[in-house]
């Protein structure tokens, strides 16, 4: 047989022919409105009605979570989280210049806003990003945070960051003038993201103004709700800021634990498994309970700096001792896998390697232990702000534990985010220890590309503190120095 004789060439299959030909499994010439085969056989030529394109030019298609790709003048984000079904969100006002920042926020920034490497099903990806499709304030707040973070490595992103920040401020003011927008998650989310922008990018202390604005919005909505991820996020920023800025929390009470009057089933908000690697909520529940002591310490520190506090040192000491006793009793009741975790847990022999969620959970346990030790240092500093702690004291042991945790924490994965406040307090506790200073300096000035938050202002404060202590051979109060500098340092706890 001659080459190719009796062999039909393959016919490319398409799904663009008329429905009549496709049902008969024959090739259609796709002539419209009636193809030649249907015309010849007097069949009714039926065509599928194409749905209107849901992605007009310039729009951005965003399934929940994942990576973003340019396509047809827009972008497509492939879902990476198994906890939710992907869906499409349009951003009609997005242009090509904003796509890298939108991508960076969704794929990176949202994973480090509240917890380290929170990459699966976190509510910033799942709930907040879709709201930005209809909220210019939230949309530009997201872009400002992303551009501001990228500017730390590439200064060319600084101008777009400032522009998006200014636009977000203008749009937020417009939203605040509309009563229907005051209770929306998009308005509250925009306010919180502008706070994050000021914390992570600006050298000013405007983060507190935005945080107060978020507080006002939460109270307008009826008060904080434990089922609301934005309220949880606010509480983290509030307590962290209160510890380092010399004030008490902006909302009274343990509102991150207490269920408000509006926290009912009717809100249709399910329990958040957040972050995804916190199996059984051991980490979140423990940290939220530790936040109670953090809040009490921040209020006591603020009181001790007032004229009343300075004239009543015994009262301050008694309150501190009460907090210390409660903290010690509470810590003994914590799960043993967290409380008794070894700093060498990464090197311990195991029958099988830890999975990624198990590994991240263990890292979060180390972070909580660092924060608990930071509370011990903070408490003693309120009582003896200029006292040098001897070797073997509770404060010295707490500082050494923090330094050991930091020393053994791998770099380059954003894990320093959970050690910022602990490292700062260890820096406050040490005196004439250049080796510890070098470690703290390295950890607090780690690669800014792997975390949203940084400790630039905190490290600047420590450098001045260490220099003066070396020069004067005196222990100084970092809070007095912060007031002298006229700044309100934010350190994520």
Automatic annotation (TrEMBL):
<protein>
    <recommendedName>
        <fullName>Zn(2)-C6 fungal-type domain-containing protein</fullName>
    </recommendedName>
</protein>
<dbReference type="Pfam" id="PF00172">
    <property type="entry name" value="Zn_clus"/>
</dbReference>
<dbReference type="InterPro" id="IPR036864">
    <property type="entry name" value="Zn2-C6_fun-type_DNA-bd_sf"/>
</dbReference>
<feature type="domain" description="Zn(2)-C6 fungal-type">
    <location>
        <begin position="17"/>
        <end position="47"/>
    </location>
</feature>
<keyword id="KW-0804">Transcription</keyword>
<keyword id="KW-0805">Transcription regulation</keyword>
<dbReference type="GO" id="GO:0005634">
    <property type="term" value="C:nucleus"/>
</dbReference>
<dbReference type="Pfam" id="PF11951">
    <property type="entry name" value="Fungal_trans_2"/>
</dbReference>
<dbReference type="GO" id="GO:0045944">
    <property type="term" value="P:positive regulation of transcription by RNA polymerase II"/>
</dbReference>
<dbReference type="GO" id="GO:0008270">
    <property type="term" value="F:zinc ion binding"/>
</dbReference>
<keyword id="KW-0539">Nucleus</keyword>
<dbReference type="GO" id="GO:0000976">
    <property type="term" value="F:transcription cis-regulatory region binding"/>
</dbReference>
<keyword id="KW-0238">DNA-binding</keyword>
<dbReference type="InterPro" id="IPR001138">
    <property type="entry name" value="Zn2Cys6_DnaBD"/>
</dbReference>
<dbReference type="InterPro" id="IPR021858">
    <property type="entry name" value="Fun_TF"/>
</dbReference>
<dbReference type="GO" id="GO:0000981">
    <property type="term" value="F:DNA-binding transcription factor activity, RNA polymerase II-specific"/>
</dbReference>
